[in-house]
Amino acid sequence: MINISLLIISYLFMEFVAWSNHKYVMHGFLWSWHKDHHRKDHVNTLPENTEDKRFEKNDLFFLVYAIPAILLMIIGFSINYLPFVFISIGITLYGFTYFAIHDIIIHKRLNIMFLRNPKSEFIKAIIKAHTAHHWPKSKNDFNNFGLLVFPLRFLKM
């Protein structure tokens, strides 16, 4: 039970990690990696066809998150310490969620037909919040740095 709890806590904690890294690292000292992700922000269409190249420097952030998860998994199995393995699984599941929602559903970097028109109001709200980050109508819009946690007003739009 404790291992499943660690998995869930690590998954949820990754939203805070993603939010803080997006705000303070990606839009801070590693803007040079992240800016190509915002290169089409002057175009007023999202999510249709926003990406015209397969890889961005921004994709390097995958390694920033994957390497600690991989190390935790290797160490956990090597020393037979399952809490590390379950924390690693939580981080990995969040990474998969982020990739599926951000890169596939929002930015359509992979053409997966059944993910092109989400029906979920929650996913639609995530898309609206992310769109507001890329094309802010106000300073508050640009402050949407998270993925799964966003201002409730996007659920009501």
Descriptive overview:
There is one protein chain. Helix 1 (2-29) packs across helix 4 and helix 3 (61-78) runs antiparallel to helix 4 (82-106). By secondary structure, the chain is mostly helical. It is 62% helix and 0% strand.
Features:
single chain, 157 residues, mainly alpha, 62% helix, globular
Q: List the total number of helices.
A: 7
Report the helical percentage: 55-70%
Strand content: under 5%
* Helix-strand pattern: HHHHHHH
Low-confidence stretches: 46-50
Secondary-structure-based class equals mainly alpha
Tell me about the biggest sheet? none
Radius of gyration: 17 Å
Mean pLDDT: 87
What sort of overall outline do the alpha carbons produce when their principal axes are compared? Answer: globular
Distance from N terminus to C terminus (CA atoms, Å) equals 39 Å
Number of strands: 0
Number of domains: 1
